[in-house]
């Protein structure tokens, strides 16, 4: 039973961890990637880790800053949350089906957000559906062309999908991930404890059933006691195969 409780605690700790992929491509906007990276990693003590995920080992920003990717692009497929940043080459990236095919994201198990031209990539991947979206004025016609209704707002979220517009909108996405992840962690931790509780309950029921069998056998043994010649008592043979008493 202690092993079951230990497994439950480990599962609860796992549920608190958050792996976050910040998708960063060549020509990226430093504000989008670095602000979200900095804010989300402030929760590192709680098991959170946000990392730059890119299609190549190094990417260069719109202002010539070259950074080394911390994770390959495919890391996004296993992350708990994914953020699409913007950049000056996003429209070309949106037409690169070979690159986008490397992303297999699922809003049913992930939090997915994007800002400015990153919203265009979300639209190309079919992650927005019929939800309204926010973006910047330059990207708006491309997102509309992709079949998404654009609203004039800095931020919009529904369920596990969020979009934002504006160069400083990454703070909205980071705050949204923090708020949504708490609910996600609670659900995961609750599910882990329920699973462990089920195992614990089965162990307790098995132990109780075993104890009942032993008590029943003891009662039958006591009932089988009979006086021997001369007034001495001896035990008879128990009919239960699990426990036989020696002859007196």
Description:
The protein is an alpha/beta fold. It has one domain (2-191): Class I glutamine amidotransferase (GATase) domain (Rossmann fold), CATH 3.40.50. It is built from seven helices and eleven strands. The protein has a seven-stranded mixed β-sheet, sandwiched between helices. It has a two-stranded antiparallel ribbon with strand order 3-4. Strand 10 and strand 11 form a beta hairpin. The protein is globular and about 70 Å long. The chain starts with a helix and ends in a 14-residue tail after the last strand. 29% of the residues are buried.
Summarize the model shown.
This protein has seven helices and eleven strands.
Name the CATH architecture: 3-Layer(aba) Sandwich
Trace the largest sheet across and list its strands.
5-2-1-6-7-9-8
Q: Tell me the strand percentage band.
A: 15-25%
Shape: globular
Structural class: alpha/beta
Instruction: Please report the distance between the alpha carbons of the first and last residues.
Output: 39 Å
Using only C-alpha atoms, the radius of gyration works out to 30 Å
Q: What's the name of the CATH homologous superfamily?
A: Class I glutamine amidotransferase (GATase) domain
* The number of domains: 1
Q: What ranges have pLDDT less than 50 throughout 5 or more consecutive residues?
A: 232-248
């Amino acid at each position: 039973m202690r092993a079951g409780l230990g497994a439950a605690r480990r599962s609860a700790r796992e549920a608190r961890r958050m792996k976050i992929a910040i998708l960063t491509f060549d020509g990226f906007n430093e504000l989008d990637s670095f602000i979200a990276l900095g804010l989300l990693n402030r929760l590192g003590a709680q098991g959170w880790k946000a990392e730059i995920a890119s299609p190549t080992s190094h990417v260069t920003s719109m202002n010539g800053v070259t950074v080394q990717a911390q994770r390959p692009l495919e890391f996004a497929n296993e992350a708990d949350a994914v953020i699409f940043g913007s950049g000056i080459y996003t429209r070309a990236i949106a037409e690169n089906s070979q690159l986008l095919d490397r992303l297999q994201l699922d809003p049913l198990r992930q939090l997915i957000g994007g800002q400015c031209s990153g919203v265009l990539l979300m639209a190309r991947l079919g992650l927005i559906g019929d939800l309204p979206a926010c973006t910047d004025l330059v990207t708006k016609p491309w997102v509309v062309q992709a079949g998404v209704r654009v609203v004039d707002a800095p931020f919009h979220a529904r369920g596990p999908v969020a979009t934002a517009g504006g160069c400083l909108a990454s703070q909205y996405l980071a705050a949204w991930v923090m708020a949504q992840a708490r609910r996600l962690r609670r659900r995961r931790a609750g599910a882990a404890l329920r699973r462990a509780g089920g195992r614990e309950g089965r162990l307790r029921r098995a132990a109780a059933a075993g104890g009942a069998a032993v008590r029943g056998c003891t009662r039958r043994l006591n009932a089988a006691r009979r006086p021997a010649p001369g007034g001495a008592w001896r035990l008879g043979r128990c009919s239960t195969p699990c426990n036989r008493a020696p002859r007196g």
